[in-house]
Amino acid sequence: MKLDITTLDGEGAGSVELDETIFGLEPRADLLQRMVRWQLAKRQAGTHAVKNRSDVNRTRKKLYKQKGTGNARHGAASAPQFRGGGRAFGPVVRSHAHDLPKKVRALALRHALSAKAKSETLIIVDDVKLADGKTKGLVERFGKMGLSSALIISGSEVDVNFGRAARNIPQIDVLPVQGINVYDILRRDKLVLTRAAIDALEARFK
Predict the structure, then answer these.
(1) What tens digit of pLDDT does each residue of 110-139 get?
(2) CB 152 within 8 A of CB 167
(3) Which of 5, 24, 66, 161 is most buried, judged by most C-beta within 10 A?
(4) What gap in Å lies between CA 184 and CA 87, rounded to an integer?
(5) Are 157 and 171 in contact (CB under 8 A)?
(6) Virtual CA dihedral for 106, 40, 31, 191, nearest 10 degrees?
(7) Per-position DSSP letters for 51-79, written without gaps between them
(8) 65, 90, 115: which is the final residue of a domain?
(9) How does the average pLDDT of the chain come out, rounded?
(10) What are the pLDDT digits (tens) for 11-60?
(11) 39 lies in the same domain as 55
């Protein structure tokens, strides 16, 4: 698969041959769904909690004697059925993360890249570097390129000026190639890869 390379100014900069085993797969929705679910579950805080009957500061004394009153049998006032008592079966602090095999995660990333290539929403740029960190100039360049919702993947490090200019633009995400992930790829309309990012991805999946 061959794609043209462009610059941030919209000028041609040659072409690149993409690896079919990374960008030429038939996208599988089930793999992408499993990966997105794994990512969202892994980052969920899980800090929700309530007070159960052992956490409530109430007397543990038996309310009244067991027999002879005609009333129901009760123990401590911290039981869940009483007002001010503990919560029964409430949420506790826990991790929502679940396991997903490493090979499945790697395959899902390749399918996400292939999905963008197949839908023709993959753009290859020569490099993402700016002489200054002005957002206004970058917005104009993105307007010429038709980028209103995009994930931009640079090389091993994001250019300081480019990252500073892009962070104020809504629906534009910039990540180094090490941070590329399925969820961020799918949540934006277009994927922009630099030449260095493609080389790093091909080396990663060899």
Answers:
(1) 999 999 999 999 999 998 888 888 899 999
(2) no
(3) 5
(4) 38
(5) no
(6) -70
(7) --TTTS----S-SS-SSSSSSPP---TTS
(8) 90
(9) 93
(10) 777 888 898 999 999 999 999 999 999 999 999 999 999 999 999 999 99
(11) no
Q: Can you say how many angstroms the Cα of residue 52 is from the centroid of all Cα atoms in its chain?
A: 33
The closest alpha carbon to 93, from 53, 51, 47, belongs to 47
123 and 77 in a single domain? The answer is no
**CA-to-CA distance for 89 and 77, rounded, in angstroms?**
17
CB contact at 8 A, 13 and 7: yes
Report the percent of the chain where pLDDT is more than 70. Answer: 100
- Token output for 51: 């007070």
Sort residue 146 into left (φ over 0), alpha (ψ -120 to 50) or beta. left
Q: What is the CATH number of the domain that holds 136?
A: 3.40.1370.10
Same domain, 80 and 14: no
Domain coverage including residue 37:
2-45+97-204
